Give the backbone structure.
Amino acid sequence: MPIKLIVFDVDETLWSVNVTFTSFLKPPLRLVETNEIRDSQDAKVKLFPEVRELLKTLKEKGILMSIASLNDPEPNLVLECLRLFKIADYFIYPQINHKGKNRNIKTIVKLLEEKEGIPINYPEIIFVDDQELNIRSVMKGCPGIKAVHLGKDIKNIGQILNLI
Ligand SMILES: [Mg+2]
């Protein structure tokens, strides 16, 4: 089945952050370089260099993109970083909360069907994450989904392109 949707984890998947979770950053955040944000204590968020080209290519291919991230929804520092990097518009119905990844994927699928009239089956979805635990729980909760372990199945996020 062709891939219709890619759901990305954020921390250590789209960017590296040197405070464990993006939620741990201390605002205000500022863009210091095209691919680097710093917080008020100079902690860094670095967008992985392949990400911009990857998002552009996926959009050109008509593949939908969303986010399932375990971070605080309020204040939503993940969304703030996405906006500062100017990549927020690529993602439809991003889910940033503590509800768990497979629940978030189900929410994204439901919203796409109900609000956009786009039905998507699990085998048409790639989920990519750097944590084994998330890969396992999503494979169990969303049978048939293509769960890709970044760092194991692929070496860098750009290699997602080889899987579609
Ligand atoms: Mg992660």
Notes: Residues 104 and 145 are 14 Å apart (CA to CA). The helical segments are 51-60, 77-84, 101-116, 132-141.
